[in-house]
Every structure is written in structure tokens, then in C-alpha cells.
Amino acid sequence: MMLSRRRLLVLAASAATVAAPARFASARGYPTRPVRVLVGFAPGGAPDILARLIGQWLSSRLGQTFVVENKPGANGNLAIEAAARAEPDGYTLLLVATIVAIDATLYENSDYSFEKDLTAVGAVSHEPVVMIVNPEFPARTTGEFIAYAKANPGKLNMASPGIGTGPHMAGELFKAMAGIDMTHVAYRSSAPILTDLLGGQVQVYFAPISVSIEYVRSGKVRALGVTTATRAVALPDVP
């Protein structure tokens, strides 16, 4: 699948976008029956949380049930393919994230064309990624983390919900910019990552703020930084 540079940048800039099969049907009184919302990742992750919040809001506004259907696998491609093959009647929606831009470079022989087979409905969320560690980890700042990683090359495990996901790319970019070596450990979703981070099996996770914020606020994990140029106002100061 080939995307123009302009289209790629537009997709990459959207943290999450609702899309529907091409030729989205428009009719008064829509919807007249339940609508399914496809998510390409397991429950508990940022896309799943967003989809459920949006589904609740749409249900209250439109008077119909919006059912979230998780189709994890192949970096979100299983859900995208399912949406592309669905009837273009407006009753199948798809929540996609930055991953669609990354997938364009990882999967050249996809069975769908994101530009031709799907139609963007609108952007729904932009959120920073938060660099989090276990509170017992011997670093309280990003600088201290980099110093520790350089003193212990290859001994730190960096978790992500899959190869090519936004958290994975954020971690790889951080490694390159900081000049450090960490081992990437891929999971299927954010929930087991947080469990292993709390247990010490992995040392760092570049987590979407929607997934990590309650853990940071409660002190279960420590936030060392965010991927935005300014502070995230939703996060507390690190003591």
C-alpha cells in the first residue's frame, strides 16, 4: 500500500480516528439498529478505552447501541481488513490510531487500501505518550534513566503492545536519540505490560496517557517524561 507524504503525515498526526467503509451511507434517522465499532487491539489499551467512551457517548446521543468489537492481531490489520470488507452502510465503524501510518511501511502487500476502502469520519483524540517505570527503579528523571541505561547496556527491557505500535516507535526513537541499548519485549496489549512493569519483569513502558494516568496518580508507577514539547497538565508533578 502506497500513501502520499501528505496523507502519511495527516494519518501520523492523528492519535485516534474513526473510520468507516467507503461510501458511508447517509440517511435521516441513522442509526436504526446497533452499530459495531472495530478495534484492532485487545481490551484495556488506549484504542479500546477510547472506543468504549465514544460508544457510550454516541449511544446516549443517537439512541442506539454502539458495540465495541476487539479484533487484535497483525498490528491492527485484522480489524482494518474486517472494516474494509464490511458493507458500506454505516453500521461498521473502525477506530484506528497512528499505527495505520506505521503499517503503511511495514505491510506492503495488504489486502486493503486504507485510502480507497475506508472513509475517515473524524479525529477523536490526541494524547501524549508517557515514559513510565516502576517506583523502585533507581532513576527519578529522564537524565538519570539514560545514565543508568548507559551503565547497564542491554540489561533493561522496554515493553510495548506490539512491533510497530506507537509505544514501540516512541521507545525506539528514545533509544536512538539517547544512544542507549534496551531489549524490546512485545505484548498483545497494555494490561499485561502494566502487570509486568509493576512486577519488575520489564523496566520501562512508553504508555498512552489514557492507559497510564491512574497508575501515575496513585503512585503505582513513576512518570519520567512525556513525548510532547510541553508538560501534560493531567499528570501530577513527580516528587
Model description:
The chain is α/β, with parallel strands linked by helices and 239 residues long. It has nine helices and ten strands. It has two domains: 5-125, 3-Layer(aba) Sandwich (D-Maltodextrin-Binding Protein, domain 2), CATH 3.40.190.150; 129-226, Periplasmic binding protein-like II (D-Maltodextrin-Binding Protein, domain 2). Helix 2 (46-62) links the parallel strand 2 and strand 3 (66-70). It starts with a helix and ends in a 13-residue tail after the last strand.
**C-alpha geometry:** globular
| pLDDT < 50 stretches | 1-15
Per DSSP, the total helix count is: 9
In whole angstroms, how far apart are the ends?
Answer: 47 Å
Features of this protein?
D-Maltodextrin-Binding Protein, domain 2; five-stranded mixed beta sheet; disordered N terminus; 239 residues; alpha/beta; 2 domains; single chain; globular
